[in-house]
Amino acid sequence: MNGSIVLFGPPGAGKGTQASRMSKLTGKPQVSTGDMLRAAVAADTNLGREAKGYMEAGLLVPDEVIIGLISERLQQPDAESGLLLDGYPRTIIQAESLDEIESVSVVVSIEVPDDAIVQRIVGRRMDPETGKIYHIEFNPPPAEIADRVVQRKDDNEETVRSRLLAYHEQTAPLANWYGERGVLLRINGNQGIEEVGDSIESALLELSGKDA
Ligand code: AMP
Questions:
Q1: Is 39 domain-assigned?
Q2: Residues 15, 28, 120, 125: which is the catalytic one?
Q3: Is residue 135 part of a domain?
Q4: Of 7, 17, 57, 85, which has the fewest Cβ atoms less than 10 A away?
């Protein structure tokens, strides 16, 4: 499959969790704008200082900041046959700008109702050594690493509500935008991690079969 693949969905839909399996399946490097921004915040770069307040308030970072970041990433040699984009684009302006520089072959929309999102996000934990994501109830970390898993600063209930609001107002309209372009693939994300992964895999294999 040529071009980039976009993983789309509300915060906590499982985009990051599914991205590594999809990256192995497609051979495309996984690029998460959220991870890039968190790394910039941790390193206290100019970008990080600019993004921090927005992220902690559950708001989107301004388009011009994030568009520059992705445009640079798409120029790296490993991006030649496309990237697996997790968390980008998130506004129509970002999608239009991506459209000018990169072909998007499929947008995988992982759909999860709002009431399930809050429960998922508030229990989410990450292993800082491997980057693996767990959930204290649904996918608990193994006992030997339970002490070192951390919670993202923006994974509290209040910030989740702001992130969901930003999603519905600014990001959700992109589903129609991509739907009109015939590249939207809807996946039921309200099931187990393996089942969601299997659904994505079979839908992508079916699509690439049609390409061939
Ligand atoms: P994520 O890890 O994808 O949930 O992103 C965490 C936070 O980073 C978001 O709540 C935004 O503040 C910011 N962010 C990540 N990707 C984007 C994007 N494409 N556009 C604007 N802000 C973003």
A1: no
A2: 15
A3: no
A4: 57
Tally of domains in the chain? 1
- Per-residue pLDDT reduced to its tens digit, 113-151: 998 999 999 999 999 999 889 999 989 999 999 999 999
31-64, pLDDT tens digit by residue? 999 999 999 999 999 999 999 999 999 999 999 9
28 carries an active-site annotation: no
Q: Which two tokens stand for residue 67?
A: 């568009």
Q: Which pLDDT score, from 0 to 100, does residue 210 have?
A: 67
Q: For residues 92 and 101, what is the distance between their CA atoms, to the nearest angstrom?
A: 15
Nearest CA-CA partner of 48 in 67, 31, 66: 66
How far, in Å, is the centroid of ligand 1 from the Cα of 63? Answer: 11
Predicted pLDDT of residue 212: 45
Q: Which of 38, 90, 120, 125 is catalytic?
A: 90
Query: Ligand 1 atom 1: the closest Cα is on which residue?
Result: 34
| Domain encompassing residue 207 | 4-28+81-112+172-211
Taking each helix axis as running N to C, give the angle between helix 46-57 and helix 63-73, from 0 to 180 degrees, rounded to the nearest 10.
120
Of all protein residues, the one whose alpha carbon is nearest to atom 2 of ligand 1 is: 34
Q: In what order do the strands lie in the sheet with 84-86?
A: 30-32, 84-86, 4-8, 104-111, 184-188
188 assigned to some structural domain:
yes
Give tens-digit pLDDT for 158-167. Answer: 999 999 999 9
